[in-house]
Amino acid sequence: MLVSVKWLYENLNEVKILEIDFDPEINYYEGHIPSALLLPWKSLLHDKIRDFAPPEKFSKVLGNLGVKEDDLIVLYSDMGNRYAFYTYWLMKAYGHENVAILNGGIYKWLKEGYPVENEPTFPSKKSNYIVKRVDWSSRILLWELLSKLNSIELIDARNREEYEGLTSAPPEHKCEQTQVSGHIPNAKNIPWTILFNEDGTLKGREELEKIFSSINKDKEIVVYCRTGARASAVWYVLKEVLSYKNVRLYDGSWVEYGNLVGVPIER
């Protein structure tokens, strides 16, 4: 589920490497890991509504990249690797179990001096990828969230300024303000950035356990941020690293909640 840059370098030809970019025109073409295929984040979204791509589109997107259902996929992304974690969560929901995160992402790769390429990589041929099952048990929608506000553990993965209501958007998306600022009642602020070392790799298990020591692991845990990307890294740590049993992502997050009329908000 988590591979090192050294391991990936030694296994470049044995895996499918996908670079997930929010802004592919800036990042992928400036330099990418050799043999990495470009997967724009927006290609994983629904064409008409705010939701993820339906299984048919998801299948076509991966098929066009030559990915097969049993391929080991290694993900990394721009913006602190957040979209790698988000894509991991989505792939798990769509039944692709053989998927891993590059620990530290492109930043760690460059820091260690591994080679990059500027020319795009294209698949040798397309595949007939088919999503065989969909499992949204790790997702929670607004109506269910509102019915459980007093019974669940809520984690707000945004930065402190967003949580306290000083701003409703992070610096990288400062033009995308919501109608109101603040946080969902009873949410605990655990900014996603504290999960990582200076080189972008995840902290060790013992450190991560200390970070989440105030969270009751026996309760249902819901994580959110602004759009779900940063919170997906928290979901990954809780679910895949620390083995918490009941962790769900509220991907509607503050973009949805902060624009609703009449819902409770704390500052």
Automatic annotation (TrEMBL):
Disulfide bond found in the keyword field: no
One GO MF term: thiosulfate-cyanide sulfurtransferase activity
Pfam families (alphabetical): Rhodanese
Gene3D superfamilies in the cross-refs: Rhodanese-like domain
InterPro entries on file: Rhodanese-like_dom, Rhodanese-like_dom_sf, Thiosulfate_sulfurtransferase, Thiosulphate_STrfase_CS
Entry keyword Transferase: yes
Keywords annotated in UniProt: Repeat, Transferase
Domain Rhodanese: 11-118, 148-266
Name of the protein this chain belongs to: Sulfurtransferase
Natural source organism: Sulfurisphaera tokodaii
